[in-house]
Every structure is written in C-alpha cells, then in structure tokens.
Amino acid sequence: MVDYIEVLGAAKDWAWGFIVSEEKLIKSIIKKIKLPKEVKSIDFAFSEDSTGMPAVWINLHVSEDYKPSADKVNRLSAARKDISKRILEQNITSWPYVRLIAD
Amino acid sequence: MALANDLLLQATQLASIDTGKPKQANLRRAVSAAYYALFHLLIDDGAASAGSKVSAAAKARIRRAFAHADMKTVCSQYAKASAAGSMNAQIAPLLTWPLASDLKNVAETFVTLQEARHQADYDLSTKFSRIDVVGYIDITEIAFADWTTAKTTANAKIFLMDLLLRKTWSRT
Q: What are the structural domain ranges in chain B?
C-alpha cells in the first residue's frame, strides 16, 4: 500500500529543494549585476502570478520621486531589463517580474 | 497602429498628470494603457498580415480572435527560448534560430505588462509609484522600437501567427 504521508513528504522536500536552488541562482545573478546608485536594496519572493505561472517577484527599492529625470528612468529600466534577461537566459522555471518599489 | 500609439501617449500623460503626489487611479490607468498599447500594436499587425485585400470588417474579426492568455503563453516561450529545443516542438521548426533579441524583448515586455496591468486593475493591495509606472512606460516604448525592427522578419510573422493560432496549430 502506498504510504501517502511519505509521498507527500518527498514531494514537499523536492519542492523545497527546487525553490532553494532557484533562490541561490537568482542571488548569484543579482550579485553580478552593477545596480544603479538609486537602488537602495533588493529582495525577492516566489509565488504564482495572476495566471498561476510560477513567478519570482524581484523588488528594487528606490526613494519616492515624483519627477524622475529621463536619465534616472533609463538607468532603472536598464537594470530591470538586465535582471530579467539574465534570469530568463538561465531558463529558471519562475518568471522574473522586476518591480520598482518606492519607499 | 494609431490606437496603439494613442494608448502609449495616454499612458505617458496619465503618469504625469498630477503635480506632486500622483493619484493611484491615474497611475493604475497608465499601466493599463501601456499594456493595451502593446497589445493593440501586436494584434493590429497580426490582422494586417492577412493582406491589404482583406476588408476592414474581416480584420476587425481577426483582431477579436487574439486572446490575452494565449498571447502570454506564446510570449513567455519566445522570451525564454534560447534554442529550438526550448520551444514548442511543432512551432520550433518554423522559426530561424537563434531568435533576435528585439523579438524576445517584445515578448518579454508583453508578459511583464500583462501582469502589471492585472495588478493595476484588480489588486488594490499593490501600491504603484510614479517611478515604477514611468518605468513600465519606458519599457513599452523600448518594445515599440524593437517591434519596428523585428516585425519585418520571417520570425516575427510566425510569432504573430503563433499569438493567434497557438492552441490549434501546435497540435501534433
């Protein structure tokens, strides 16, 4: 007879190991990127997006700015795209959504 | 095309309409307009690819046939695709590899904007800031520029057909 508790436990271990390995990979990718000076800190979290696709939410924390200069917007957009591109190149299961969070 | 450009302009105007602290309603509508700008850019060119002899009414029907969820599925594959093996097995042989970075960027931006638009329209727990919204508009403008370059290629024609037909023409 199948021990469902054991199967469930193994699945949980596998899923946890999977998240930990993706987390490590994302950390190492972010570490290699030179972020613009406006980025005060960065964090990320895994969950599903609105359509149920596995996703990683990468938050770049910046100061509130009601009139950002074009240069600043370009720098932050470039960082946003660079992070996404590098993560997508690694073929990570979770889709990278990079957001600018104004604190 | 005119609608796509007007929506992008509207997004820019809404993002900067408030002096001082921006209203969430304006920022949220700006994000939504940016997404729909890219959506209409793609479906207009998809309908246009049917040819100049097709009536305006027929093109309108073709535009209506594009589905947001299917387009996201297709775009997420193109954005991630590094080689034929990473693409749907029925579609991969129709494409020339590797995919150009401008086409991949259009696809990636579509997925990003669709999720942002969903948050803007339905998720009141998410607070939008002007810098974030202006950033979404900036990446939309980049995607528009990339599409101008990409759309003349054979891969872009397949991409447009894939956006419309994925569920049926990817069958084995």
A: 2-169
